[in-house]
Write a structure and sequence with these properties.
Shape: elongated
Distance between the termini: 112 Å
Strand content: 15-25%
Largest sheet: 11 strands, mixed
Radius of gyration: 49 Å
Number of helices: 18
């Protein structure tokens, strides 16, 4: 570690940067720079005005860093990226919750869109190096100068809860007395907390849950941070006190101080008013647009961003609204020689992000104004002594319409240095101008200021009249909204009534469906009983000249198995194939195993299936020859037509066997003549 003294805050400031490793990995180490306050009587303190501090450097683990923060309770923990201390948003919230009261995490490079640390350090004249220790020191110096944004996950409201410190138990002889004592102590402690908050002049709201003998709990919502509240976490006997800040919806970044740099402002008036703020280095600081904001709201927003020295418009001539803004800020005006074309505005703002065309036009006006004055800014900066504020000199020249030398002289006089030189320069600046006394010059400046203030007052009065009109309009809208709310309440009641009716009808529908399902089950049971009662259907059919037929949906294994499971396939059955196509050898063999009397087919059998059934002497007849009559799952065919079809199949089968035998003999004779030895054949 090394130490040396520099100017700093009255409280310690920590600067942190990752030295090695990664917060998402294992055991990251951090470069830590601490700016410690130094007493005036410290022998190491140099002879200089202002608060002093000593710089301490070290490399620490995350655990040691947290321990040092708890022990030293620094004013700021500064870093160039808050997510170097946490892997994700949840861990970052946990880290923020662990910080001591009064310690803030500061991201010195900006808010959601941080700038490079080197650029921020250069802008504020802070030494910078790429080594982690130098980056940590630059972060600490910047935070000590109130540069950066506080990273916060909590609001400025704090919840103080007073509750029971122990359970009231399961009961017993003294249960009521024990419970009454606990609730009485909670009420007593609540009154003590309320008295302390009132003595500290803090605004708060109280919510109490009353129970037997006193309070079960009490919650105070206090307007203030925990360090401002004269109550801390505690637990004593029957009572527990918890102090916790209210969480925000996400992570937010709040500037340590409001930006008050000199800036260039572009304004696009109209139904939607837009404004853009650009720094004197051409950096886009902020964009704004609103359909409801009035002149006062826009002025307030601009004041929060900085001190305008140029107010610009994108059209010629400058609109009266923009001119009012220019006069109110006593700034120089800028407008193009002709209206800026849309393609040029798109090209000039191509690297910036904006939400609508109005913001684009305002930003284009500001950027073109910067382009027009950039060389002038550089010349002024070159002539400005290092001890003076460059932006103050630029503002005096551009907005005050004065020479560089006179502005430098005035600023030097204000600083108490170079007064004689400033008078000499003023005398040499324009020898033809009559010399004014100091009182005359003061009167002139005061008159100009009065004129500007009167103009601004007139503008504000106009804004006030517009605001009164707006208030009247909003009151009318409020009354209308109340009427609509009453109508909506009646509608909600009607909807609630209809929903209850809908629920009743849905219950009746569900009951009807259950009844239908029950009746369908009864029908299936009756069908099964009917089948059992007509199990001798074959005999009945035979008496009437019909034969029963068992139908199969398709000539496949699955369909055969389904038919067998439904009503059984046994020897002597007549099987009806509703779709005989597509069967293979296995399917045909499965059907042949049942030894059916005959197979009635719809469609054509495959050659393989036809040969298998033929080899097993299973008659196959077309449905055209033997019509099948079906009733539900029952089917019958005419006995005489079936017999005739089987006889016809037998005749065709006999001719087919003879033809096959003749073909076999011809093949034997042919092979014998060829001198070939024939394998044994069955015959």
């Amino acid at each position: 570690m090394t130490t040396r003294t520099i100017r700093a805050r009255d409280r310690p400031v920590f600067g942190v940067d990752v030295h090695s490793g990664d917060v998402r990995g294992d055991d990251p180490s951090y470069a830590l720079v601490i700016l410690d306050p130094v007493d005036e009587d410290d022998p190491d303190a140099p002879d200089a005005d202002g608060p002093m501090a000593r710089v301490t450097r070290d490399v620490v683990s995350f655990r040691k860093l947290c321990r040092l923060i708890d022990d030293r309770e620094p004013l700021y923990v500064a870093t160039d990226n808050a997510y170097e201390l946490a892997a994700d948003k949840g861990e970052l919230v946990g880290f923020l919750r662990s910080l001591p009261d009064g310690t803030r995490l500061v991201q010195v490079t900006g808010a959601e869109r941080p700038e490079p640390l080197s650029r921020v350090a250069s802008r504020h004249g802070i030494p910078y190096g790429k080594e982690p220790m130098k980056e940590a020191e630059a972060s600490a110096r910047l935070a000590a100068a109130n540069v950066g944004h506080e990273v916060t996950a909590f609001t400025d409201e704090t919840r103080v809860k007073v509750s029971r410190g122990r359970s009231t138990g399961k009961g017993g002889w003294s249960q009521d007395r024990y419970t009454r004592r606990i609730h009485g102590n909670v009420r007593k402690r609540t009154r003590q907390v309320q008295s302390k908050l009132e003595d500290a002049n803090l605004d708060f709201e109280r919510d109490v849950t009353e129970k037997y003998g006193g309070y079960a709990n009490a919650t105070f919502t206090v307007e203030g941070r925990p360090e401002e509240i004269p109550v801390s976490n505690s637990r004593a006997g029957d009572v527990r006190v918890e102090v916790e800040r209210e969480r925000r919806d996400g992570i937010e970044y709040e500037p340590l101080v409001k930006r008050r740099d000199r800036v260039i402002v572009g304004i696009d008036p109209g139904t939607t008013t837009a404004a853009a703020v650009v720094g004197l280095d051409g950096t886009v600081h902020a964009l704004y647009s609103s359909r409801t904001a009035d002149t006062a709201d826009v002025t307030e927003w601009i004041v929060e961003q900085g001190r305008p020295i140029i107010v610009a418009a994108d059209v010629e001539p400058m609109p009266e609204t923009v001119e009012k803004f220019r006069r109110s800020f006593d700034a120089a005006g800028w407008r193009p020689t002709t209206d800026l074309p849309v393609d040029e505005k798109l090209h000039r703002t191509r690297e910036a992000g904006y939400d609508n065309d109005h913001e684009r036009d305002a930003l284009a006006a500001a950027l073109y104004a910067y382009d027009d004055h950039e060389d002038q800014f550089d010349r002024i900066a070159a002539k400005t002594p290092p001890r003076l504020d460059r932006e103050a000199v630029i503002a005096g020249v551009v907005a005050g319409d004065a020479s560089v030398e006179s502005v430098i002289a005035d600023l030097s006089e204000d600083d108490g240095s170079g007064g004689g030189d400033g008078d000499a320069d003023a005398d040499e600046s324009d020898p033809t101008e009559p010399e004014r006394t100091e009182e005359e010059e003061t009167i002139r400046r005061l008159r100009e200021r009065v004129e500007r203030l009167e103009s601004h007052a007139d503008s504000l009065e106009g804004d006030l009249a517009e605001r009164d009109e707006r208030i009247a309009e909003l009151e009318g809208e409020l009354e209308k909204a109340r009427r609509e709310e009453r109508i909506e309440a009646r509608s909600r009641r009607a909807v609630s009534r209809l929903e209850r009716e809908t629920d009743r009808l849905e219950r009746e529908r569900d009951e009807a469906r259950e009844t239908v399902a029950e009746l369908e089950g009864k029908v299936e049971t009756l069908k099964e009983l009917w089948r059992l009662d007509h199990s001798n259907f074959d005999d009945v059919a035979a008496d009437r000249g019909f034969v029963s037929v068992k139908a199969v949906e398709q000539f496949t294994l699955d369909a055969l198995e389904a038919a067998d499971e439904a009503y059984g396939l046994v020897a002597g059955d007549v099987v009806y194939l509703r779709d005989a196509s597509g069967a293979g050898r296995r399917t045909a063999e499965r059907l042949a195993e049942t030894e059916p009397r005959a197979v009635i087919r719809d469609g054509n059998l495959s050659d393989v299936a036809d040969q298998v059934l033929f080899d097993h002497d299973v008659p196959v007849v077309p449905a055209d020859a033997v019509p099948v009559r079906e009733v539900d799952e029952l089917a019958v065919a005419d006995e005489e037509k079936l017999e005739a079809a089987i006889d016809d199949w037998e005749k065709r089968a006999e001719r087919r066997r003879k033809a096959e035998k003749q073909e076999h003999l011809d093949r034997i004779i042919s092979e014998h003549r060829a001198g070939r030895t024939l394998p044994e054949t069955e015959e």
